[in-house]
Model the fold of this input.
Amino acid sequence: MNAADTSWIIVATALVLMMTLPGLALFYAGLVQAKNTLSVMMHCITIACISSILWVLAGYSLAFDGENALLGGWLGGLSKIGLADITRDSLFGTIPEILFAAFQMTFAIITPALMVGAYVERIKFSAVILISSLWLMVVYVPVTHWVWGGGWMAELGVMDFAGGIVVHVTAGISALVIAFILGSRTGFPKGLRPPHAPWMVFVGAALLWVGWFGFNAGSALGANGDAAMALLVTHLSAATASLVWLVIEWIKYGKPSVIGLVTGTIAGLATITPASGFVGPMAGIILGLSGGVVCYYAVDLIKFKFGIDDSLDVLAVHGIGGALGSLLVGFLVTLNGGTGLAEGVSMFGQFGVQAVGVLFTAFWSMFATIAIVLIAKAVTGLRVGDDEERHGLDLSHHGETAYRL
Done:
């Protein structure tokens, strides 16, 4: 065990948990109407609790028990169920395996929580619980095994340093499926009210920005140069994409908004995630620039051209950003500060490998989520009643209000 590596990953684990609680909770809560503030926070914290338990009971083993893999290597084994046989002295590289399991648990927490943004203000709380639970085990865990647990994508050579495919593509595609089946909010798109608390969105985004250093730099699993470079390029991508969004809004509407700028921040963070440990500073700026532009126009395409109420733009920002970074990484690792490609692998060869990973994950996420949502529709129902939606989910589902004025 290396004390420096262990210390850093303990900190990184706390930072990633901060991304969901309170970062994502505040970010999403500020974007909805005041009458739904607490429901969004409730979704985030409940998903965090459920995912933690499921991860320890079975998720970690099925994702990372590569030595006893099931189904021909498509799923991890069962020897680590309940974290059995993992002692205080068990190591994963240079850190305690129990710490590695905890670090990965925070990824398992935030990934289904990201999807909350697609279905806010009109979904039953019971449906959120059932969909999130099934989704974690059926979508997230297998993909994690394929990419990080020694599965077939790892053997193929897919590059995903911190979750462009594992986290953002899975959550983005699944969010779109849920939003499509659930249907739009009443009044979508022209009759919707603007976010009720832009200041809250800003605070949540700031916490996500800082927490993302744990997400990306922590994925180096050590206090080393890879972690340092991942931290720097993460920051550069976020800063660049924020400015891109600001400039586009300024030109288009004459007034740059706080909401727009911090949405660009998240787009830059999602885009750099798969490449963060592989690329250098200039690549970080390039990814922030490309992510800012592509994700901005993806928001308009999905909501207003396709008419799908992905309420808080989970696919456009996370899914498209994560996919874009995953596809570009093979070209950018050769720039100054990058790790380069494996011997005998060309840039276009790596692009092909990345495309296979992105597309297969997207299709798996889509079809599995369709099945999960249909199960939830039959068991709990999906959508709240018209009166509940009109009065807000805070009171109708939780008997509380965020504000007493």
